[in-house]
């Protein structure tokens, strides 16, 4: 009997929410959650379609990416997830998708500007775009380096201020206090990315939302030190 049944169930349900929200196609994307006390991460198995995924398929790995429990291979993005968990102690769940609008901004290599209060309610300004990976990094361990790219993107801001990032040439990653919250942020990111694209299409010359409005909306919901959107 697995000692991680509850953790696996939570991660299974978070992955199925991605499918329900139509943020993934076939086997795109993956969700994970860490149990910091046990020192393990539960993550979607690689290459398994959502319609056949079962709770017992969820793979348990340690923070050095070694499989602890499970017959299937962990997601090919596991090293990116564990890199973020090792670096940011304040996060408990990570989601990766290839959702259409967020991925389009990532492929265009453009940070998503804050054009409106909808975005400001959840992100303190723009949604960052992690730089294109350098050649030496590409030749390294790609998934590990993707984690490094994301962390570098937050060198001068807290991951609490933007629980989401788009990775240039790749796609989005989001995080939160647990798997469910990271999926919630993935849903919000796709909606915000779509709104921003449509806004820019309607008015190409549109500028960013005034900082005073960004402050008012972000701080009203999140506060200076609040854990972004914690249970709100
Ligand atoms: O980013 C990618 C592929 O570009 C991956 O996220 C796949 O979309 C899902 O891979 P697995 O989790 O099934 O290994």
UniProtKB/TrEMBL annotation:
It catalyses: L-ribulose 5-phosphate = D-xylulose 5-phosphate. Gene3D superfamilies: Class II aldolase/adducin N-terminal domain. Keywords: Metal-binding, Zinc. Residues 9-197 form the Class II aldolase/adducin N-terminal domain. The keyword Iron does not apply. SUPFAM superfamilies: AraD/HMP-PK domain-like. It comes from the Bacteria. It comes from Catenovulum sediminis. PANTHER family: FUCULOSE PHOSPHATE ALDOLASE, L-RIBULOSE-5-PHOSPHATE 4-EPIMERASE SGBE. Its cofactor is Zn(2+). This is L-ribulose-5-phosphate 4-epimerase. Belongs to the aldolase class II family. AraD/FucA subfamily. Its EC number is 5.1.3.4.
């Amino acid at each position: 009997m697995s000692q991680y049944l509850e953790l696996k169930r939570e991660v299974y349900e978070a992955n199925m929410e991605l499918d329900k929200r139509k943020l993934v196609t076939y086997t795109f994307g993956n969700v994970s959650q860490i149990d910091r006390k046990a020192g393990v991460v539960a993550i979607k198995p690689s290459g398994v379609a959502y319609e056949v995924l079962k709770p017992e398929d969820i793979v348990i790995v340690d923070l050095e990416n070694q499989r602890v429990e499970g017959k299937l291979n962990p997601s090919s993005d596991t090293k990116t997830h564990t890199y973020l968990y090792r670096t940011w102690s304040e996060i408990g769940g990570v989601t990766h998708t290839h959702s259409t609008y967020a991925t389009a901004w990532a492929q265009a290599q453009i940070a998503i500007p804050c054009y409106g209060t909808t975005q400001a309610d959840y992100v303190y300004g723009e949604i960052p775009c992690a730089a294109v990976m350098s050649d030496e990094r590409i030749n390294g361990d790609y998934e590990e380096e993707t984690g490094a790219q994301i962390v570098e993107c937050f060198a001068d801001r807290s991951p609490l201020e933007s629980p989401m990032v788009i990775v240039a040439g790749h796609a989005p990653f989001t995080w939160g206090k647990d798997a469910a919250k990271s999926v919630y942020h993935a849903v919000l990111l796709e909606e915000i990315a779509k709104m921003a694209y449509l806004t820019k299409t309607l008015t190409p010359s549109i500028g960013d939302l005034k900082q005073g409005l960004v402050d008012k909306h972000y701080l009203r919901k999140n506060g200076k030190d609040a854990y972004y959107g914690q249970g709100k």
